[in-house]
């Protein structure tokens, strides 16, 4: 996920869209991308509500709708100031969506977020807001849906037998799970939480993937890949996460998972 985002961030223009629930690290990821772009050489401007990270090297503006300033009006103002990169905190309405696409269409690099369940939902949401499919296909560089999973404390993690249902699920998703995995316990190093730090799992749609699907909904074979879950299971196999935490954060129930043939 990170390598794909970093590669997309090297494009001269276009639109990068992140999606995910509140607290899933979207803003942190966007600012990480800004850092890699060489801020000293670019005119970077942001519109945020609120500003979460203060950076003296860029021009940040906080949206105050009570004072008559919206995301859409803010974009109009920014476009008059010859920016290279624009960060828009969130696309919430049709006017903001239209202005964000206009910025990308006129040679600017735009980073933003949209609230949807997964990466494919961004396409449907933008279409609901009046953005034509051909504009989505032409100007969106990458769409990334993101979740945060707590990382097991390496000082106190406890080895347990891997449930057979989980092993079968791993096989179906081409993730080899060992006979023993780890669960959280708690110690002084992690303040008895069982976890230290977090990592992101992502569902990535490149422009090629968007162009390849003409229908409004992706084929079942694509939806069944469950990229969030596959990345999470890989971390379980590496001993970085326990499956209970992965399923909890992804809103899934292992006992209700349908395990079929392997998917690519």
Task: Write up this protein.
By secondary structure, the chain is of the alpha/beta class. The chain has a domain of 164 residues: 3-Layer(aba) Sandwich (Rossmann fold). It has 11 helices and 9 strands. The strands form 2 sheets. Strands 3-2-4-5-1-6-9 form a 7-stranded mixed β-sheet, with helices on both faces. Strands 7-8 form a two-stranded antiparallel sheet. It is elongated and about 60 Å long. The two termini are 17 Å apart.
Strand order of the largest sheet: 3-2-4-5-1-6-9
How much helix, percentage-wise, in residues?
Answer: 25-40%
What's the CATH topology name of the domain at 2-149 and 200-215? Rossmann fold
Mean pLDDT: 88
Q: With helices defined by DSSP (H or I, 4 residues minimum), what is the helix count?
A: 11
CATH homologous superfamily label of the domain at 2-149 and 200-215: P-loop containing nucleotide triphosphate hydrolases
The geometry reads as elongated
CATH architecture field of the domain at 2-149 and 200-215: 3-Layer(aba) Sandwich
Query: What is the succession of H and E elements?
Result: HEHEEHEHEHHEEHEEHHHH
Amount of beta strand: 15-25%
The count of strands amounts to 9
Which CATH C-level class of the domain at 2-149 and 200-215 is it? Alpha Beta
State the distance separating the first and last CA atoms: 17 Å
Summarize the structure.
It is elongated, with a radius of gyration of 20 Å. The protein is an alpha/beta fold and about 260 residues long.
């Amino acid at each position: 996920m990170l390598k794909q985002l970093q590669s997309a961030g090297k494009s001269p223009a276009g639109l990068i869209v992140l999606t995910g629930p509140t607290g899933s690290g979207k803003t942190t990821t966007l600012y990480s991308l800004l850092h890699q772009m060489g801020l000293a050489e670019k005119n970077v401007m942001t519109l945020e509500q609120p500003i979460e990270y203060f950076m003296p090297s860029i021009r940040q503006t906080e949206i105050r709708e009570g004072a008559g300033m919206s995301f859409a009006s803010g974009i109009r103002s920014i476009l008059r100031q010859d920016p290279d990169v624009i960060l828009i905190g969130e696309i919430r309405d049709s006017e903001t969506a239209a202005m964000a696409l206009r910025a990308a269409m006129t040679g600017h690099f735009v980073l933003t977020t949209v609230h949807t369940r997964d990466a494919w939902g961004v396409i449907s949401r933008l279409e609901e807001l009046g953005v034509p499919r051909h504009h989505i296909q032409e100007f969106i560089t990458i769409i990334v849906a993101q979740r945060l999973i707590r990382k097991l404390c390496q000082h106190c993690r406890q080895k347990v037998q891997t449930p057979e249902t989980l092993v079968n699920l791993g096989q179906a998703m081409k993730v080899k799970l060992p006979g023993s995995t780890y669960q959280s316990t708690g110690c002084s190093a992690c303040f008895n939480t069982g976890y230290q730090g977090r990592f992101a799992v992502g569902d990535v749609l490149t422009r090629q993937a968007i162009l390849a699907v003409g229908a409004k909904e992706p084929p079942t074979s694509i939806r069944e890949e469950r990229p969030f879950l596959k990345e999470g299971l890989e971390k379980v196999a590496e001993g970085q996460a326990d499956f209970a935490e992965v399923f909890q954060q992804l809103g899934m129930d292992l006992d209700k998972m349908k395990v079929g043939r392997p998917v690519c």
